[in-house]
Amino acid sequence: MRALVLDASHTPLRVTELPDPVPEPGQLLLRVRACGVCRTDLHVVDGDLVRPKLPLVLGHQVVGEVVEGGGRFAAGERVGVPWLGWTCGVCRFCVVGAENLCDRARFTGYDVDGGYAELAVADERFCFPIPESYGDEQAAPLLCAGLIGYRSLRLSGDPERIGLYGFGASAHIVCQVAVAQGRQVYAGTRAGDEEGQAFARSLGAEWAGGSGEAPPELLEAAIIFAPVGALIPAALRASAKGATIVCAGIHMSDIPAFPYELLWGERAVRSVANLTRRDGEELLAVAPRVPVRTEVLTIRCGRRIRRLQSCAAVAFAVQRC
Ligand SMILES: [Zn+2]
Ligand SMILES: [Zn+2]
Fold it and tell me: CA-CA distances (angstroms) from residue 51 to 23, 248, 277?
């Protein structure tokens, strides 16, 4: 099969031929129809995440057609493969439904090969059926940008006014879900990013401005999608007592020191790590009902992957060759 391979961090992906993967018992063999590009993929390429399997096929927002089925899925069905590729099922996290924290978890496109290839294999138990109303490329961003965003929204409490810092792939999905739930969304973008702010307003955001600006109302919760530690004190400053600030990214620059007063009033700062299968099942049931529409830019693989760096803020799908 043709595949895009990462040989070492800080190097461009290489288009090459690899032997076709052979599914193990319990795994599906998939023909990849589209694979979304996630900010995490860029963190792996940039060496921010330090233990990828190498060489590695990246990509953990995989929409594939089942070639060899098993379990719940027959040949010809369309399935999604997310970041969470396997968990042990017996550790203290797994047994209480916190499989996202499993120490032995294997992640797609990091510990095992992902979807930047013509074929992929995936553990059937961690795959999701793709809602019929979505095209392949439109479904791909739901599988990580959507799932992590949805988990972050769920863990933000039940806010009436929620801030989204960094309005990219995740936020553009979460914004639509939050608005459909009757929440007011306040979007923070890079200073002066008027296009991003207009995009947020077009998706129902009540207000959009620079991340450093104070929103017109105090926030009851905020989700930080941008990998920028300085946004934590900024979000605390913009939040009401009792607010939860959720950090949704897998990597973030250091958080600058800030006065305790910003945290006082039972404000909380927490991270969200990975996803559980429950998050996936819930989002993929909710998304078609909203209905969430994803903005994608389709890039045929084989183009230089470095191009993606410049487009990291939007949701993508890489179509199969
Ligand atoms: Zn476990
Ligand atoms: Zn991701």
Answer: 24, 20, 24
Amino acid sitting at position 316: F
Q: With a cut of 50, which residues of the chain have pLDDT below it?
A: 303-321
The whole-model pTM stands at 0.92
Instruction: Write down the pLDDT at residue 298.
Output: 85
Looking at the CA of 58, name the nearest ligand: 2
Q: Residue 301: its pLDDT value, please?
A: 63
Closest ligand (CA of 94): 1
Taking the CA atoms of 170, 175, 178 and 184 in sequence, report the sign of the dihedral they define. Answer: positive
Which domains are delineated in the chain? 2-143+275-318 (3.90.180.10), 147-271 (3.40.50.720)
Report residues near ion ligand 1: CB below 5 Å: 87-88, 91, 94, 102
Ligand 1 centroid to residue 101 C-alpha, Å: 7
Write down the residue that tokens 């963190």 correspond to: 43
d(CA 68, CA 65): 9
Ligand 1 centroid to Cα of residue 98, in Å, is: 8
CA atoms within 13 A on the CB side of 22: 1
| DSSP state, residue 301 | B
Token couple for 181: 């739930």
Q: What is the pLDDT of residue 209?
A: 97
Closest ligand by atom to 81 CA = 2
| Alpha carbons 101 and 30: distance in angstroms, whole number | 27
Spatial separation of the C-alpha atoms in residues 116 and 320, rounded to whole Å: 8
DSSP 256-311: PP--GGGTTTT-EEEE--S--HHHHHHHHHHTTTTT-----EEEEBTB-GGGGGGG
Q: Which ligand has the nearest atom to the CA of 39?
A: 2
Alpha-carbon gap, residue 226 to 158, rounded angstroms: 22
